[in-house]
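Run log, item B.
One chain of 406 residues. Sequence copied directly from the ordering sheet:
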Amino acid sequence: MPLPPIHASQSLENVRYEIRGPLAQRALELEKAGAEIIKLNIGNPGIFGFRVPETMKRAMIENLEHADAYTHQKGIFPAREAVVMQQQSRGVLDVSADDVFIGNGVSELILIALRGLLNPGDEVLIPSPDYPLWTAATTLALGKPVHYPCPEANGFEPDPAAVEALITPRTRALVIINPNNPTGAVYSRTCLAKLADIAERHGLVIFSDEIYDQILYDGAQFTPMATLARKTLVGTFGGLSKVYRACGWRVGWLSFSGPKDHARSYLEALDKLAALRLCGNVPGQWAVQTALGGYQSIHDLTKPGGRLFETRRAVLEGVRASQFLDAVVPQGALYAFLRVKTDRLPNFDDKAFALELLERKHVLITPGRGFNVPYQDHFRITLLPDDQAMATVFARIEDLLAAKAL
């Protein structure tokens, strides 16, 4: 007698994460067959030779004897206090160690933050393009993602008036990703101040994803959202994965600033959810204090001559030399969000192109629609290969686009 089918939960029906979706699975199959794939689908510095600073490794190793046991669900005190000190150095003075949660990367904390807040049908304002975990986590928490546009014509910066027009009685939170993934936009202080005012007037929780806060180019200025929004609850997300190239360590943090008395029920819910998963990765937490308080080696990588800067230069040169590509210059983060000129390729389809690029040229990218946009003429690449490898990537992309234009 055959066993009855085991179906996936219906809550996953509208959950997408194409960064590690079918294309990434096909890339693994090609690798098993002997192909060498250039993987530009995910911001994973370690696979391109970036290394965690030695001081952080030593801090973790020297404290391994203190890492065997579970910690408090919010994390070890030195790590939480280091986050507090960073916030205070930026002018955010109303954060204490009790307001900080350490998690297994920002990803886990996003899931917890939304699960603790939303009831079925509650709405969350999320940028489009977005980092798709925000949309997925909202959906998994039975909420409704409402995407606000970040127009390319505006440098991918949101229009605050358009954001406010989407607010309904069910809107609970406003998500801001700055510096932005996938576009590389760094939002102006003026824009952020307007978004802060909107959230304050409508009583929205602000979730500010600032994981790329120190990855900036050409003098771009990053403004922490918590310095602008003082009259509503602000959750600021950061971590070791990107600035400190420690993706596999799985250490992120979420700190809350602004008024909190009215949010005690919510904050207690987050404490409960954190306790249910016992605690975050302990060894990596011992590196947080060293990371935040020590020399910021990321600046060596993002200045002229630094590897990230030079790869970004190679991307921009590749775009300028292309007959088919255009791009807004990324001012931060680890990505470029490229547009294909549809006057040259009117039937361009991002998903079909990504698959063909993988199969024929062994380059793995993420289609633009994987970032919850309504158009199909963009794709995202990372800035992680060196400049020579990136030149090879653009030669392969241009060759395939030229063949499609014939």
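Observations after the first pass:
- The CA atoms of residues 80 and 279 lie 13 Å apart.
- The radius of gyration is 21 Å.
Flagged for discussion on Thursday.
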